[in-house]
Structure formats: structure tokens, C-alpha cells
Amino acid sequence: MTPNSRPHPYPSYKPSGVPWLGDVPAEWDVLPGRACLREKCTPNKGMLEKTVLSLSYGRIVVKPPEKLHGLVPASFETYQVVEPGDIVCRPTDLQNDWNSLRFGFAATRGIITSAYMNLGTKRGILPQYGYALLNTYDLLKVFYGLGSGLRQNLDWSDFKYLPCLGPSPPEQSAIVRYLDHVDRRIRKYIRAKQKLIGLLNEQKQAIIHKAVTRGLDPNVKLKPSGVPWLGDVPEHWEVRKLKYLGEVRIGLTYHPAEVSDEQGTLVLRASNIRDGRIVSADNVYVSKAVPEALLVAEGDILICVRSGSRSLVGKSAVITSEFRGVTYGAFMSLLRSRLNRFIWWALNSNMLPCIMAQFETSTINQLTQNDLRNLSIPFPPTAERAAIAAHLTSESTTLDTAAITARRQIDLAREYRARIVADVVTGKLDVREAAANLPEEAEDIEESEVETGSDEAEAEEAGAVMEAGEDES
Fold first, then answer.
1. Is 198-400 a CATH 3.90.220.20 domain?
2. pLDDT mean across residues, the chain
3. Is CB count within 10 Å lower at the N or C end of the chain?
4. pLDDT the model gives residue 352
């Protein structure tokens, strides 16, 4: 792209009449949504289609059969058929969810839940441009001022009169081409950063596992641990079960009627554990009185013991002073021990494969209280435990800092992409010449941004569904 072909403002603008759109290019139309979009709903009666699609991180992806969680084909007759070029919208729960990307563009024919809206574009509006427009409005949080009902759900009436920008079809093509170019490069950058984060995590796991199973002396003599999956340990170490090192407690059971979004006692769940830390995310509160025995203390270890996703089971974090005095859900367990520093490092090594192996044939992913209490861990003398914990804290801090930097760079790249998309689609930048000078690009095989994001989203969603549907009843 030459310097002269870089995006720049349009020669002239006019008022759009819409406060959140501001001025738009003078030659662009401002049309009601019904002139650009149409609602589609083709029921999957008779199993017209069997390819199940999923809206995840703003992308429509094919859901693998192994992730259908036991649903039989007949159950998909309630789904709706989606064609290539359709725009899928998740219209629900505007009140509580301000973060999800609600629109996806279908590149594959398939079926998706009828709880979603399926939109097509009318003549004069390219499907890819229609998606870019709605995605931009989503990024600008336009839809959160719309909707109806208790949880502020969208329906077709919210789109009928939605102000839509209508540049000429050739200009729409230029916009789509330019945004695709930007998206490819940013996604390539993000994939590289995600690969770096994966390598840092692998290095961290290797360091932790070696330290908690072999210690810090590379020349130490070893002995069989007596635990097949643990192998050899230093000959002067013991192997102890968790129940002899601390007290394991199960979490609070509560009813959905006792749940509040803002008031009451905070209930820590799997979604509150991120990268080995307790965070405020997707918070849930209960209005009922919580027994003192179920209130957490600083230094306690919180462990996810049951989830709709196997990948979440075993996640753990140490309670910090910020969260002292809150409670935790029944899908979580709490370990209270004066040895928590070393135990937490042991739990964050690769020491759970023997227990997790049961999930290969089980439809319920869980660690029972008996599993947890009888988990055997290596147990070095006091001085070594302290030295190992200090060593791992130092080593992990360096690796965690690098991973945090990479995640921040990913966030900045996504923010940049969102800003560019908004500026181009709303006419703040003219990309016609820039798009015309772009090189032809081969089809890009995308890897981890979609897949990693999808897996994380499905894991959190599956855990939330199980907690809402079973644990809290």
C-alpha cells in the first residue's frame, strides 16, 4: 500500500441525524433497517440439515460432534437453518452481558438454535457489508439502548427502524476488502502472541512440576513414590494425602430465587478463577444467610471440582485479602491448611492426570470430595517446602509478567481492530483507494484465536449452565 493510498477522510460530510453516527459521507444514504435487512427463520423440520453451528467470539463455527453433549439428531428439529451469507445474532440478555460479540457471519450452511435471530440482507446491501455494519453497531454498544422484556432481549422490531448506512455497492466491496485485509493481519499477530503465551505456560508447568516432584537439587537421590502416576521422588521426602495436610470443605448450595446480580454475599465460582488468581468476573451474589463455616479466609485454596467442561476441573487459586469473607458454590471445594503455599504449587503442577482420566468415560466432569481428600502429593521437609515455594514464586513471576504483556498486546490489537472497523464502516475513513491497491491474498488457515477463544467460551458457558441448572437448585 503506497503512502498516498492510505485511508483518509471523505471530501465532504453531511449530518446523519443520528447522534451516535454523527456526520457521514455526503453521498451515503441513511436507511431504515427494513430497507437493508430481512428476518429469516427456516425451521429444521424433518432434519433438513445436520451440521450444527455455534456463535462463539463473534464467529460462526461448526460444532464438532464430540461437543454436542449427548444431544441426539432428533433434538435439532427445533433449530433453524442458516445459509452462507446469513447474519446470526444472539439477541438475549442485553441487561447482563455487555461484553459478548453478538453477531456472526455464516460461511457454512448448517443449523443453529432458534433462540438466535437469523438475518439476511436485501438487494443493494452486500451480505459481508451488512455483517460489518451490525458488528460495528455492536462494538459501539448501540443495541444496549434497545431491547425489551426483563432481560432486554432484541427482536425484529429493534432492527426495522435501525438507522443503517448505505454506501454504493462498489464502495461496500472496497470496505469489505479493506477490513478483511486488516483483520487477517491482526489475527496473524494475535495468533503469534497466543503461541507465545502457550509456550510460556508450558515452560511454567515444567518448572512447577519438576520442583514439586524432584526438588531443587538436580543430584538428589530418588526413591519410588508408591504412586504410579507420580513416579520417583527424593528419597528423604514423604508422600501424604491431602486430607492429612488440611481440611477440605464443599461449597454452598443455593436456589436461583436466592441469586442477585449486585447485592448479598459474593459466591465464588469457576469463572472467578483466572490464571491461578481470584478475579471479579461474572459475579453472582446470594441473599440467603451463609454459615460462617462456608466463608473463605485469606490464604484458603479454592478448587473447581465440578463443571460442564473437563478443562475447568482442577483449576485453583489462593484467596487474597480482597475476597476474604465471601462464600463459594457447591461446584467448588475449599482447602484450608497452614501449608497452603506449597500445596497450591503442587495442585498447579501436572499431578491430576490419574483422576482426570476418569472423565474419558464419564459424562459428569468432577472431582469427588473423596478424590480430593485422598490425592497424594510429595511432601518435602519444612525448609525445602519454603525454598521451593520461593523459587517458584520468583520463576513464575518472570513468566507471568511476559504472559501478561502478551495478553495486553492482544487486547490492544483487538481494540485497534475495533476502532478501525468502526471508523471505516461509519465513513470516518475513505478506504476506496487503499482497497484498490491491496495485493491478492491466499486463503488464510486460521488457528488459535478462534479455536482458543471458542474453547474457553464453551468451557465457561458449560460450567455456568451446570451451576445454574443443578448446583443452585
1. yes
2. 84
3. C
4. 60
